[in-house]
């Protein structure tokens, strides 16, 4: 694990440096306050899980991790935008994110919306510039972030708790299937896109790796499901510690979660099923899959 921590730290640092340089060197003419708002959220202490998945997938395939840096930075831009928008009064209405005031609390709602918009756009600018010979990374990120991916999942989530009305037709009658659909899109799609970005970057320089996508896809999907169930279980624990502080979403019809639907013990078993499935899927990569494996193990041991 010591090696994994060093591996993770060096890749986290390279993503942060890359984004710092982009924002200071490449966005000449962009309003200073906009860049400040973008950087505030980008550098607010995220774990960089999605970028690490990009690097880990490239390495599992024997690719060059330096090539993966723009893709890793791009997916973090999309993730950061989604958190800024999710925290807005119109959505979850949160005052704090990672223990710091949310973007709209610091910069006001209008600039927070626009900083999110700018980060989403920047992600595609980075991909288009750095992988100009091939649109596959752009497509991978667009599918994960867009209407059939994260944004679609967010809409279903807001339908689930009653914030988006008159859309009952999109709600599955079976709560567990509906929850799986929400999570696969809202959280899972960007994790899967991260793995896909790693695969696409590796494809730029290697041939005959198509057969490995199936294994990476199982891993990416399992990672997403395990991540969300773990997040819900940790939320329960932190709710107990904060005497159940309610967000706007919790105050609705009741948040749809695995622990809420099937109980804590069954949720833990469900998460375990996904961990094992993910680990099995990457056996084919042997030693090269160490970072993918360690990321899944770190998620399994996650305490906060
Ligand atoms: C607003 C379009 C739009 C989408 C929002 C991702 C998302 C969709 C909302 C976030 C809500 C939330 C807290 C979901 C739980 C899972 C999750 C994505 C947690 C945050 O991801 P981490 O733990 O965050 O990777 P850090 O802080 O490490 O970057």
UniProtKB/TrEMBL annotation:
InterPro entries: Isoprenoid_synthase_dom_sf, Polyprenyl_synt, Polyprenyl_synt_CS, Prenyl_diphosphate_synthase
GO (cellular component) term, any one: cytoplasm
Domain of life according to the entry: Bacteria
UniProt keyword annotations, A-Z: Isoprene biosynthesis, Magnesium, Metal-binding, Transferase
BP term (GO), one: terpenoid biosynthetic process
Essential cofactor(s): Mg(2+)
MF GO annotations: metal ion binding; prenyltransferase activity
Annotated SUPFAM superfamilies: Terpenoid synthases
Listed CDD domains: Trans_IPPS_HT
Keyword flag Cytoplasm: no
One Pfam family it belongs to: polyprenyl_synt
Stated family: Belongs to the FPP/GGPP synthase family.
Full protein name: Polyprenyl synthetase family protein
Organism: Telmatocola sphagniphila
